[in-house]
Amino acid sequence: MAMKLDIISLDNQPVGTIEVDDEVFGAPVRADILARMVRWQLARRRAGTHKTKGLSEVRGTTKKPYKQKGTGRARQGSLRSPQFRGGGIVFGPVVRSHEHDLTKKVRKLAMKVALSSKVAEGKLVVVENAAVDSPKTKELAARLGKLGWGDVLIVGGTELDRNLSLAAANLPHVDVLPQQGANVYDILRRDTLVLSRDAVQALEARLK
Q: Which of 185, 202, 36, 179 is nearest to 106 (CA)?
């Protein structure tokens, strides 16, 4: 089945409509799939370079602090033990990868659900062309303000418009990505999703 979406220009003028596949843009919204996908994406971004030293790695004397008996204190064998200041850490973090597996089928479904959720909320906008004439941030901010896009992800075609990329670089709640970079986390973290006509066609081909 197909559904129709309106197409506008960046000047908020109607341009026409585009037919999109209901399988890609009309999938049931599943929060569990989105949560799994976001967790998978964020886990892959983690460096995993956190590290603490255990007892065997801490530098210091190996001498017994004091004799075993007769001092009135608890017996101790090393000043590098965890109970002493500067001692080793028990079960502390070590350098490791945080990545975990998520099947391609689930990742593909999550992308469909993310797009469909924006359609269901009325927060998906299709533009004829994600391009501007000038790289001026002030001009782009004014244009987005008129459109009511304060928190927005703009997904262009395979090649991004250079002027749009430069103009959006200093806007704190505006992200610009090529269609091959579109991902679930970035779609969900912004309030409005704007797709160019080329991006819609590329995403359909990728997800069908």
A: 36
Residue 60 in tokens: 């210091």
Closest to 125 measured CA to CA, from 148, 157, 159: 148
Specify the pairing of strand 14-21 against strand 2-8. antiparallel
Cα separation, 120 vs 76, in Å, equals 65
pTM above 0.90, yes or no: no
- Give the strand pairing for 124-127 and 2-8: parallel
Helix, strand, coil shares, percent, the chain, to 5? 35, 15, 50
pLDDT in tens, 144-191: 999 999 999 999 988 999 999 999 999 999 999 999 999 999 999 999
Q: What is the set of domains in the chain, with CATH numbers?
A: 2-45+99-207 (3.40.1370.10), 52-92 (no CATH)
pLDDT digits (tens, 9 = 90+) for 113-154: 999 999 999 999 999 999 999 999 999 999 999 999 999 999
Q: What are phi and psi of 154, to 5 degrees?
A: -110, 120
Number of Cβ atoms within 10 Å of the Cβ of 122: 8
Q: Are 96 and 50 in contact (CB under 8 A)?
A: no
